[in-house]
Automatic annotation (TrEMBL):
Gene Ontology MF annotations: 3-isopropylmalate dehydrogenase activity; magnesium ion binding; NAD binding
Protein name per Swiss-Prot or TrEMBL: 3-isopropylmalate dehydrogenase
Gene source species: Oleoguttula mirabilis
Residue span, Isopropylmalate dehydrogenase-like domain: 15-380
Pfam family, one: Iso_dh
Cofactor: Mg(2+); Mn(2+)
Amino acid sequence: MATNGTNPSPPKGGKLLILPGDHIGPEVVSEALKVLDIIEEATGAKFERDFDLCGGASLDKHKDSVTEAVLQKSVEVDAVFFGSAGGPEWGHSQPNPESGLLRIRHKMQIFANLRPCNFASKSLIHRSPIKPEIISGVDFTIIRENCGGAYYGSKVEEEDYGCDPWEYRRSEIERVVRVAGALAMQHDPPLPVWSVDKANVLANSRVWRRITHEIFEKEFPKVNIRDQLADSLAMLLITKPTAFNGLIVTDNTFGDILSDESGGLTGSLGLLPSASLAGPPAARGAEPGLGRNSVGGVVGLYEPVHGSAPDISGKGLANPVGQVLSLAMMLRYSFNMNHEAEVVEQAVAKVLDSKADGGLEVRTGDLGGKAGTAEMSEAIQREVRRLLKA
Ligand SMILES: NC(=O)C1=CN([C@@H]2O[C@H](COP(=O)(O)OP(=O)(O)OC[C@H]3O[C@@H](n4cnc5c(N)ncnc54)[C@H](O)[C@@H]3O)[C@@H](O)[C@H]2O)C=CC1
Ligand SMILES: CC(C)CC(=O)C(=O)O
Ligand SMILES: [Mg+2]
């Protein structure tokens, strides 16, 4: 109990379910957790860690891509830290390994998948396949609807026929576009928002567009909301990427595809993190309480944008940055540890800039360097330690 009339600050940390998954998933998750160890040591925060299986690893042991027990655990923790699921060895499995992740996303109702696209370090600009004068300064976040659309619903899969109903209901659209509105309003002036769809062809897109405008007009009148067709956006992100600085809110399929394009823009998919949230981060205009976890943050699942990269797994070559930056997003959104999140982001930037500082280049192969996963991770850990002591 507080003795001086003020409330003691709440204990930092909380409960984590860790699902490393397949191929490079476990390789990069174990490195990111070393960063968490350092943060625990320096801050006194305590993260209870429960490790389990999802994807191919779960298929091998339980003949299912995720078990009911793991699904149940996913809704009893403050956050899930996820690696990646899938690989060619489970190519003909029913269910397939990726379905484990889809089922967890649905069970947790983490409907807003935030996928930022920016340069973790300015020294990476020259790694982009896009000319520096075009790509420099790119900074947008895709907010991808994560629990509906063509990835869910009653699928039909027969020998000569396949069908994935691509449907959206008002409630599914409203809740994700509200996250976009709430995030836009965290900035002064508010960030611009592009709502991305295929309203020229798809009925569900026309409903998406109408409801999005209703919500913004009523609840976020100060936000500049514009429509953009998904196909032309795919082209414009290459020719004029900075024109979309701000927020892009879109459905599950378009968000999945466009966020891998972000990896192309920044030079490597291995760099990009993501946060899938069950409600808006604390923000003006956010509904209080929606999606909150037991420590006052938002319930979330954190994973890199990339997949399990079977082509490089088992060789110690994977870039750990996407996974480490996903840890930073977890600290920020689920555990209200903004300072520590920034420390992790600064440490990553510092390591990526090491050559620019006249030091040795510590970069994995996807970034044109010679370092392995462990070397790059150790460099990040050293920086995190140094910054936490400073
Ligand atoms: N969230 C998840 O668990 C996801 C799983 N997948 C699954 O992953 C498997 C492989 O899919 P792909 O289409 O090959 O996509 P992928 O994202 O695994 O790999 C695409 C390319 O990027 C490279 N890459 C990805 N992450 C990297 C990293 N951290 N460091 C260095 N290079 C990296 C890979 O080596 C590969 O050349 C499939 O089974 C797919 O379904 C794909 C996307 C997301
Ligand atoms: C279920 C995943 C494999 C889908 C995907 O590619 C992603 O979420 O990035
Ligand atoms: Mg994807």
